[in-house]
Design the sequence.
């Protein structure tokens, strides 16, 4: 498996009136995971994709169980599910593993990101180094429930 695990802190203010983490705040948690990953996704010690330019083009999120505030960070697995000419897709799973071996999955999601040239304000092709780095994180597509029906 090529998944990276990034623990993120759930903030008290992330909860909504129903006592669970609000759907918008979930996207912010995924953003934290993505930013952490972009710092790791450097081609041979060069600039991170945050520095060289990347924008979000699409999110897909499936909420599976309520995530509530807790002191311990929540683990999030992140991996690359596909790599195109200028874009790539990231997969996420927000979960907890219980001592008895059962897993509670709160969220599964994808983000399509596009390499971006800040100067021209346009998308750009992934460099060979970026492509190789992203492909090293390649794993299976996100197993969304609704797609398996």
Sequence:
């Amino acid at each position: 498996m090529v998944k990276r695990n990034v623990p993120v802190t759930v903030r008290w203010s992330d909860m909504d009136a129903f006592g669970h983490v609000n759907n918008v705040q979930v996207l912010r948690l995924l953003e934290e995971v993505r930013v952490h990953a972009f710092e790791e996704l450097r081609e041979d010690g060069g600039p991170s994709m945050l520095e060289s330019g990347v924008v979000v083009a699409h999110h897909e999120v499936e909420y599976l169980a309520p995530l509530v505030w807790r002191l311990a960070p929540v683990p999030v697995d992140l991996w690359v599910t596909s790599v195109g000419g200028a874009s790539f897709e990231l997969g996420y799973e927000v979960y907890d593993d219980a001592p008895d071996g059962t897993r509670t999955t709160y969220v599964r999601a994808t983000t399509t990101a596009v390499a971006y040239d800040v100067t021209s304000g346009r998308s750009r092709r992934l460099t060979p180094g970026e492509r190789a780095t992203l492909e090293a994180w390649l794993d299976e597509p996100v197993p969304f429930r609704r797609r398996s029906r």
